[in-house]
Amino acid sequence: MKLLIDDAHIDKIKNIYEFYPVVGVTTNPTILSKIGGNPFDTLKEIREFIGEDAQLHVQAVSRRADEIVEEAWHIVETLGANTFVKIPAVPEGFKAMKILTETSEIPFTATAIYTPMQAFIAGQCGANYAAPYVNRIDNMGFNGLTVAKEIQQVFERNFMETEVIAASFKNSQQVLELCMCGVSAATLSPEIFTALVKNSAINSAVEDFISDFESFAGKDKTMLDF
Ligand code: E4P
User: Fold this and answer.
1) Domain segments of the chain as ranges
2) Which of 11, 44, 55, 197 is 20 to 30 A (C-alpha) from 75?
3) Are 23 and 2 contacting, i.e. CB atoms less than 8 angstroms apart?
4) Using CA positions, which residue lies closest to atom 5 of ligand 1?
5) Residue from 133, 151, 165 to probe ligand 1 pocket by mutation (most atoms less than 8 Å from CB)
6) Cα separation of 151 and 191, whole Å?
7) Span 2-195 CATH architecture
8) Separation of 88 CA from ligand 1 center, angstroms?
9) Is the minimum distance from the CB of 131 to ligand 1 under 6 angstroms?
10) Distance, CA 226 to ligand 1 centroid (Å)?
11) C-alpha 38 to ligand 1 mean position (Å)
12) Active-site positions?
């Protein structure tokens, strides 16, 4: 499972990149609204930091297909290769996806996915990724993990190349459950990232080893001292 950061705060992104294996960053209009200003200033700063090989997912906000397509070109021309345009999985979005598939090589991610059928249609329209919103589905009284797993099955059983990029998590256990099912990718808030291995038993075990070493080698000694 590939891991991406679902945030646009450059300091938080830098912090997660320092410690975890990350293949890119996803944003949406709500995430960008938390930074404010010119969205491309924010996105260019992220692109500069993550490099041209990392994925950057950026949402188009137009309602009409032709305008979504125009936005897609603008986004990719401004932010370069490996920029995935997020397009809502609604009829005008599907139309835009079909146009992009027929007329360009712009990669795109179908977003705002609440049902397997949306993901299936988006995949047929050529989406590289489909992003089910696990927590938001839960909040509607359905099971977000089940929906994400069903979408994974739909893609596998129909021999589709579209990958799941699960989004909207409320805890690290949800990430693990999808990881165990072979879901291709997940985008996590920095808070969920740090919760992936947050466990006092782990810290305690590591501290015990250090303290046992220091008990015979001396305080702050390491293997480098011998
Ligand atoms: C990603 O594609 C989504 O925009 C995002 O993960 C939604 O997360 P939220 O439900 O926490 O806002």
Assistant:
1) 2-195, 197-226
2) 11
3) yes
4) 168
5) 133
6) 26
7) Alpha-Beta Barrel (3.20)
8) 12
9) yes
10) 50
11) 21
12) 86
Q: Can you tell me the distance from the alpha carbon of 73 to that of 148, in angstroms, rounded to the nearest whole number?
A: 29
**Residue keyed to tokens 């692109």:** 47
Residue 111 Cβ contacting ligand 1 at under 6 Å: yes
Residue 93 has φ and ψ, to the nearest 5°, of -65, -45
* Reported pTM: 0.94
Residue 117, strand partner residues = none
Rounded distance from Cα 218 to ligand 1 centre (Å): 49
**How many C-alpha atoms does 45 have within 13 Å on its Cβ side?**
15
26 lines ligand 1 (CB under 6 A): yes
Q: pLDDT tens digits, the chain, 226 residues: what are they?
A: 999 999 999 999 999 999 999 999 999 999 999 999 999 999 999 999 999 999 999 999 999 999 999 999 999 999 999 999 999 999 999 999 999 999 999 999 999 999 999 999 999 999 999 999 999 999 999 999 999 999 999 999 999 999 999 999 999 999 999 999 999 999 999 999 999 988 889 999 999 999 999 999 999 999 999 9
Q: Decide: helix, strand or coil at residue 141.
A: coil
